[in-house]
Amino acid sequence: MAKIKKTVQDELLDAQKEIILQKEENKRLASELLIAHKKLTFQDTEKDKRAAELGVANIELAFQNKEKAKKEITHKKLKAFSHSVKLTSQYARSLIEATLDPWVTLDLKGVITDVNEAMVKATDKVRENLVGTKFTTYFVEVKKAANVHREIFSKGFILNYPLTIIDGVLTDVLLSGSVYKDEDGKVIGAVVVARDVTDLKKIEKELIEAKVFAELATGIAQVAKSKAETARRIAEDAVKAKQQFLSNMSHEIRTPMNAIIGFTKVVLKTELSAKQKEYLTAIKMSGDSLIVLINDILDLAKVDAGKMTFEQVPFKMALSISAMIHLFETKIQEKNLVLIKEYDTNIPEILVGDPVRLHQIILNLVSNAVKFTSKGKITVSARLLDEDGEKATVQFAVSDTGIGIPESKIDKIFENFQQASSGTSRLYGGTGLGLAIVKQLVEPQGGSINVKSKIDEGSTFSFILSFQRTKEETPVETELMELDTDIRNIKVLVVEDIALNQLLMKTLLDDFGFERDIVSNGRIAIEKLKDKEYDIVLMDLQMPEMNGFEATDYIRNKLNSKIPIIALTADVTTVDLEKCKAVGMNDYIAKPVDERLLYSKIITLVKKPVDAKITGNKGIGSFQSNKVKCIDLAYLIHRTKSNPKLMMEMISLYLEQTPPLVVTMKQSLLDKDWDSLYGAVHKMIPSFSIMGINIDFENMAKKVQEYASTQQQADGIPDLVRQLENICAQACKELEIEFDMIKNTPI
Ligand code: ADP
Questions:
Q1: Nearest Cα to 637, choosing from 219, 329, 217?
Q2: Per-residue DSSP letters for 244-282?
Q3: Percent of the chain at pLDDT exceeding 90
Q4: Which residues in the chain are classed under CATH 3.30.450.20?
Q5: Over the Cα atoms of the chain, what is R_g?
Q6: For residue 402, which atom of ligand 1 is closest to its CA?
Q7: Using CA atoms, how far apart are residues 311 and 307, in angstroms rounded to an integer?
Q8: Cα separations (Å) of 6 from 234, 380, 395?
Q9: Mind giving me the DSSP string for 95-116?
Q10: Closest ligand 1 atom, CA of 400?
Q11: Which of 419, 437, 455, 456, when mutated, tests ligand 1's pocket best, judged by the most ligand atoms within 8 Å of its CB?
């Protein structure tokens, strides 16, 4: 045990010792741990320190990196910038080099610091030799070049300054330029560009030349224009002169013709042998055709001068046409032709137009038809084509069964002086003017003319004209009167300068049994009118000292006289009827004066109120003179087929019957024997249409007949009976002549 104990003790001791050791070890370890701890703490601090240092270093690094990146960007930018600067400068340079305009830069002293290729070329120098030399050296006008230099630096720029570069060809240039400055705005030099204006100058020169040429051409054109104007004026004057000449000539020819025809008529009325009568009739006929020719030429002159005018007056177309056709009756009978009239009764009775011109047209056509037809018939027709409230369109046609016109000539015949064949004039006479005038009378009135013809079968000339309709009445026409020897106390003043005409007037008025004074111009006429009372003045128009217009004007406005004045005109186609009317003339009569027309006009005006107006369709010359006939044998000729024997029988029957019927009519009216009056008039009525007496008289007879049966409305019956008596008497006279003519015409 003790051993054990000892062992244990030892062990314990050992253990104690061990523990002490352990303790000491622990202590050492603790102190070591402390030291280590201290160390660790120190190291931690160090570590923190280090870590802090590392953070700073990191920040520094990041900053450094950023700076580096920045620097890199800047560097790149710088590089790009310098690249672009380089590009720009290259670009600018190439532009400068590429431009065709010479270009220099100057320093303040005017020394060239840079040039482009164009400048090198322009001056024909080496580039290096140009730089550093004086700018002014290269221009013809050195002073002017120095001005450029001065001006550019004083003003800061110059624009289009003209100079000439000294080169092989002395190039004209316009200099423009401006200064350039450094960063501080200090002027350090100037850029000058020279524009080569050789081409511009050339163009300018050409333009100036062109302008000069244009001015010259304008001048030439103006001269040409004024020449053309002069030529036109001359031509117009020539036309006027021609018109005037023709008018004067016609007057000069008409005046003696007037005397020839007038005196022939006077002599024809005297005792003559058969031969003398024949010769005188030939003279009169030649005179008449000369007057027609003069009228034709005058009409054409009027057409040429654009002076053809058309009247617009109301007229009765049916009357107008039948009166005109009367003209040809004798001629037609002489040639043993049949005249047929076809008048459309639908044509309004009164129309507005130019009856004189219508006469002229139909007259020309019928005259040709008669001339070129030796057997068969001539038909004159008027047909209503169209009608509305305002106007009526009428187609007129003149057909014949004559020689016809070759087709090849149809277009020609309407031209002046054109006949269908060269032999026409020799065989048939004529001048080839008629149809030309007809065309000029139809077309300007808006009408058209047409011809159809077949050789040896005949021709039809037709024309269409439109007329205004009217409600107006036609002016009263001068009725042709028989010479009444009871009317003697009429005092006439004749104003006429031509001795022959004076003599003719004297003869006519003496025949009428009128008192007359004859003076040779308007001035003397006025003096006469102041001294003496007259009933009427016959006034020539063209007279020396004071013409007819002036004299009439004086009589109306200074003498305040309303005395009737009839114009005597030689030139009815050109006479200014408006002028006659305007100065206050009452009527006019064409020379050669138709004595019956003159007589009727004088009687009408002296009896009538003086303010009667001139009317367009009062009788003019030959048209009116033919209205003397109250009968128209066309119907009889037609019915009897121109059989002279039958015609004579009919006429003699009328001549036998009518006078006793007229006596009965008059007497039964006096006796108020109505049955007898009715019977007489009733028998009379059919003869009016057979003898072609105007329908008005037939209507009058019908009115008397009606009165006789009813005995109502006696107004004007005695007057109607008197008129019927007159017309029957006249018809009998005319029919006696016709009868003799037919009798004496060889079959
Ligand atoms: P003129 O009859 O004076 O010769 P126009 O001008 O009236 O002149 O006529 C011209 C021509 O036309 C005539 O010469 C004639 O050859 C022809 N002509 C006119 N009308 C007829 C007709 N009805 N028949 C045949 N030929 C005609």
A1: 329
A2: HHHHHHHHHHHHHHHHHHHHHHHHHTS---HHHHHHHHH
A3: 20
A4: 99-196
A5: 63
A6: 24
A7: 13
A8: 186, 199, 189
A9: HHHH-SS-EEEE-TTSBEEEE-
A10: 23
A11: 419
b/e sequence 177-211, b meaning 16+ C-beta within 10 Å: bebeeeeeeeeebbbbbbbbbeeeeeeeeeeeeee
Alpha carbon 539 to its chain centroid, in Å, reads 39
Q: What is the pLDDT of residues 374-394, one digit of tens each?
A: 999 999 999 999 999 889 999
Q: What is the pLDDT of residue 473?
A: 67
Sign of CA dihedral 15, 21, 25, 31: positive
Pocket of ligand 1 (CB under 6 A): 364, 368-369, 372, 400, 402-405, 413, 418-420, 424, 430-436, 459
Domain with CATH 3.30.565.10 in the chain: 308-469
Which of the 8 DSSP states describes residue 559? S
> How much distance in Å is there from the Cα of 634 to the middle of ligand 1?
24
Whether 599 and 536 have beta carbons less than 8 Å apart is answered as no
pTM, rounded to two decimals: 0.45
pLDDT value of position 95: 81
Q: Residue 418 CA: which ligand 1 atom is closest? A: 10
Neighbours of 176 (CB within 10 A): 18
The hierarchical CATH code for the domain 634-744 is 1.20.120
Task: Out of 412, 435, 452, give the residue to mutate to test ligand 1, the one with the largest number of ligand atoms within 8 Å of its CB.
Answer: 435
Token digits for 335? 């040639």
Torsion of CA 702, 705, 710, 711, to 10 degrees: 110
Return the CATH superfamily for domain 491-606.
Answer: Response regulator (3.40.50.2300)
Q: Mention the CATH class of domain 99-196.
A: alpha beta
Query: For domain 308-469, which architecture applies?
Result: 2-Layer Sandwich (3.30)
Q: Residue 656 to residues 111, 184, 651: CA-CA distances in angstroms?
A: 140, 143, 9
Per residue in 63-106, pLDDT tens? 888 888 888 888 888 888 888 878 877 887 888 888 888 888 99
Ligand 1 atom closest to Cα of residue 433: 6
Q: What is the pLDDT of residues 15-71, one digit of tens each?
A: 777 777 777 777 777 777 777 777 777 777 777 787 788 788 888 888 888 888 888
Q: Which of 368, 438, 440 to mutate to test the pocket of ligand 1 (most atoms within 8 A of CB)?
A: 368
Which segments of the chain belong to CATH 3.40.50.2300?
491-606
